[in-house]
């Protein structure tokens, strides 16, 4: 201690010192420390036992830029805004809203009423983008999923109704066969258990065009077939839908975090078909969670094929992939905060293990910080409400 004090005193003798420091040094540093040491802790305003130490000579103290709410807000690098959110909605062909057990607070909405109310509520807090997921009755599902492009299908009716009621609402759709496929895969499955790429693309194109005809603003292929973005762009343009955008699920991983979504739509792979080998998972088309560079390969292809937005999915476990795409493309990047991420937060919040508002807003902010412009989240409306309530202390 004495040696340290000595060094402080001699440092100060070396030359130019700031006026405030000079004032401090009018009494020698050593004497000042000795004087402080004789004062009681309560006089010094610190707990008993707090050591008396010299001021450290730190050229940089990052804590200065965190010292008040005003400066913290002033120096914040990332802001969340409801305009960035896309609310995923589940609809069914009935009247009542049916709760989804594994997603407390989320329901399959009656497409004519519950859905319209949910969208009006989202808009009232600034969320003006939705993506629609229809729950197809089992009897309409087939191995080739033709219901996906039924002009009178639930998705198509829902899109038209929403665009009719809310013309400035941005309506996104999901392009993939799984909600309509009796085998529960995003593409057509051969008897040997192969998810057929090029044959599936033919139907994805028809699906996208039928959604565009119904009024969709942006179609979102989530199927992970190779070459589908270019094919869908071509099919849309051939029908004069040059203004309909494509949000490609660029880096969609074969993730366990989609479980609650598959409950919501009863869309999980169904490997029990007689005489046919239906793969129990989606690993031959969705990406391996172990892989990073592969996301860049997908991104280069999707951008070249004409995607307008590129998505990473799931969200929080894949922040590195979001950053990878952000740094390698000028396109807007979307992050999907998926059903399993929602369910985890809800479950912990229900048990009182997490502060739901703080944890959710932090999760969404981190998706933004990692580089996403758009965030798809089942929390979109609730988060926007919390954000509206969140006034700084000086207002
Ligand atoms: C369909 C699709 C899935 C999700 C979005 N579109 C499920 C899947 O690929 O099995 C998951 C979304 C979520 O979990 O919230 N292709």
TrEMBL record:
<keyword id="KW-0627">Porphyrin biosynthesis</keyword>
<dbReference type="Pfam" id="PF00490">
    <property type="entry name" value="ALAD"/>
</dbReference>
<dbReference type="GO" id="GO:0004655">
    <property type="term" value="F:porphobilinogen synthase activity"/>
</dbReference>
<comment type="similarity">
    <text>Belongs to the ALAD family.</text>
</comment>
<keyword id="KW-0350">Heme biosynthesis</keyword>
<keyword id="KW-0149">Chlorophyll biosynthesis</keyword>
<keyword id="KW-0479">Metal-binding</keyword>
<feature type="region of interest" description="Disordered">
    <location>
        <begin position="1"/>
        <end position="21"/>
    </location>
</feature>
<keyword id="KW-0150">Chloroplast</keyword>
<dbReference type="InterPro" id="IPR030656">
    <property type="entry name" value="ALAD_AS"/>
</dbReference>
<keyword id="KW-0456">Lyase</keyword>
<dbReference type="GO" id="GO:0006782">
    <property type="term" value="P:protoporphyrinogen IX biosynthetic process"/>
</dbReference>
<keyword id="KW-0934">Plastid</keyword>
<comment type="subunit">
    <text>Homooctamer.</text>
</comment>
<keyword id="KW-0809">Transit peptide</keyword>
<dbReference type="InterPro" id="IPR013785">
    <property type="entry name" value="Aldolase_TIM"/>
</dbReference>
<dbReference type="InterPro" id="IPR001731">
    <property type="entry name" value="ALAD"/>
</dbReference>
<protein>
    <recommendedName>
        <fullName>Delta-aminolevulinic acid dehydratase</fullName>
        <ecNumber>4.2.1.24</ecNumber>
    </recommendedName>
</protein>
<keyword id="KW-0021">Allosteric enzyme</keyword>
<keyword id="KW-0460">Magnesium</keyword>
<dbReference type="GO" id="GO:0015995">
    <property type="term" value="P:chlorophyll biosynthetic process"/>
</dbReference>
<feature type="region of interest" description="Disordered">
    <location>
        <begin position="38"/>
        <end position="69"/>
    </location>
</feature>
<comment type="function">
    <text>Catalyzes an early step in the biosynthesis of tetrapyrroles. Binds two molecules of 5-aminolevulinate per subunit, each at a distinct site, and catalyzes their condensation to form porphobilinogen.</text>
</comment>
<comment type="pathway">
    <text>Porphyrin-containing compound metabolism; protoporphyrin-IX biosynthesis; coproporphyrinogen-III from 5-aminolevulinate: step 1/4.</text>
</comment>
<feature type="compositionally biased region" description="Polar residues">
    <location>
        <begin position="1"/>
        <end position="13"/>
    </location>
</feature>
<dbReference type="GO" id="GO:0008270">
    <property type="term" value="F:zinc ion binding"/>
</dbReference>
<dbReference type="GO" id="GO:0005829">
    <property type="term" value="C:cytosol"/>
</dbReference>
<dbReference type="GO" id="GO:0009507">
    <property type="term" value="C:chloroplast"/>
</dbReference>
């Amino acid at each position: 201690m004495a040696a340290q004090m000595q060094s402080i005193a001699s440092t100060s003798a070396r030359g130019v010192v700031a006026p405030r420091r000079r004032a401090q040094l009018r009494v020698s540093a050593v004497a000042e420390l000795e004087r402080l040491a004789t004062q009681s802790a309560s006089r010094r305003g610190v707990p008993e036992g707090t050591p008396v130490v010299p001021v450290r000579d730190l050229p940089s103290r990052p804590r200065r830029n965190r010292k008040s709410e005003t400066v913290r807000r002033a120096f914040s690098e990332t802001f969340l805004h409801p305009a960035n959110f896309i609310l995923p909605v589940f609809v069914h062909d009935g009247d009542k809203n049916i709760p989804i057990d594994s997603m407390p607070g989320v329901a399959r909405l009656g497409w004519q009423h519950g859905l319209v109310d949910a969208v009006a509520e989202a808009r009232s807090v600034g969320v003006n983008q939705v993506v629609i997921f229809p729950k197809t009755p089992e009897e309409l599902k087939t191995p080739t999923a033709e219901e996906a492009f039924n002009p009178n299908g639930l998705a198509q009716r829902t899109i038209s109704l929403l665009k009719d009621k809310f013309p400035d609402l941005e309506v996104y759709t999901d392009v993939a066969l799984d909600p309509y496929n009796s085998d529960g895969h995003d593409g057509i499955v051969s008897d040997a258990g192969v998810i057929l790429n090029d044959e599936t693309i033919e139907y994805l194109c028809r699906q996208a065009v039928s959604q565009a005809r119904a009024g969709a603003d942006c179609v979102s292929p989530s199927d992970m077939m190779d070459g589908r973005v270019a094919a869908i762009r071509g099919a849309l343009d051939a029908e004069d839908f040059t203004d309909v955008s494509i949000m490609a699920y660029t880096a969609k991983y074969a993730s366990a975090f989609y479980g609650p979504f598959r409950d919501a739509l009863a869309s999980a792979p169904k490997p029990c078909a007689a005489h046919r080998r239906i793969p129990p998972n989606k690993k031959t088309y969705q990406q391996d969670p172990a892989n990073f560079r592969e996301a860049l390969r997908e991104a280069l292809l999707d951008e070249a094929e004409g995607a307008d937005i590129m998505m990473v999915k799931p969200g929080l476990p894949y922040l590195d992939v979001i950053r990878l795409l952000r740094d390698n493309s000028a396109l807007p990047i979307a992050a999907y905060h998926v059903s399993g991420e929602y369910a985890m937060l809800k479950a912990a919040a229900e048990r009182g293990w997490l502060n739901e508002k703080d944890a959710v807003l932090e999760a969404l902010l981190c998706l933004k910080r990692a580089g996403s412009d758009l965030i798809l989240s089942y929390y979109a409306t609730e988060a926007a409400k919390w954000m509206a309530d969140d006034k700084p202390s000086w207002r």
